[in-house]
Amino acid sequence: MESCWADRKTTKSPDLTHATLAKTITQPFLEIPMTCACSTAPTLIFPCSGGSDCGAVSDQAARKLTKDGVGKMYCLAGLGGDVAPIIANTKAAGKVLAIDGCNLDCAKKTLERVGVAVTAHVRMSDLGMEKGKTPANEANIVTVAAKGAALLAAGA
Description:
alpha/beta; Rossmann fold; 4-stranded parallel sheet; globular; disordered N terminus
């Protein structure tokens, strides 16, 4: 299923002026639609890409979910770096999925630190995946992506 907001005419976040953006960031950022025929804001996906095999699986699962039209992978580092447009766009999201490889919950905690409510959270260690023992193969990527998609669909 493809997100309808991605194909609609968009406008940059209404609370940020061009002057503010010029001072804050010099690169383009996600444009959030002001109106959409389906009346939904985008679903954003934040994987903790970490430094382990679980991080690689988390990252690839987020890319798969994006490719499958479930949502859009977005910039966790921008939240940690206090990049105002990225924080504003994340707060405007309709749903937010955090994917963490372990019980440290870095993605979820980073989102919460900037005041973003996490709609759905996948902790890969809860799925039996362990650092150093979880290859970034298709089976593991599909398992994590399917769990994320199911949680988003259930609104949990």
